[in-house]
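# step 3/5: fold
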Amino acid sequence: MVARNQGDKVGRDNAFVGVFEMSLAGRTQAVRDALTTCRAHLSTICRNSEKLDDIELVIAETLNNIVEHALAERQDDAPIQISCTQDGDLISLVFKDSGIPFANHTPPGPKQVGTIAHAKSLPEGGYGWGLIHHLAHDISYVRVNQHNVLTIVFDGVTSITDNAQKPS
């Protein structure tokens, strides 16, 4: 796994700030280390611990889906690339892999998961995409040059809304 902190890079319009980029092998064993690294980088900018937990959960669901579905047929350790940028109160995470594309080039929507009938047809319940849609602000997907590019955006990352005790 390779991770680079990009906190000193600013886009041309000074809006987007690179937070980090990393690459990991498309294996289950690499996901845990990647989650630890992502959380460490994100904790420097996300001041809301509940939001940080939500983002980590989405990263875990996304990486596990990539490994278990997109890269399932691969015999090599095809890399997964993750990049993170910040724009004010928004964080964008971009996941890129060379696995098989989503059916119809469309990720599952929030209404396509989470029903009891659908859950019974899936070995692990199928609630991951429902969680991702519920916790994310926006999700987009494109297929570019034989690569899946999934972007997940979160809002409210710099707002402090934890239930901390306020002084009287």
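# step 4/5: annotate
The first helix runs from residue 28 to 42.
# step 5/5: archive (pending)
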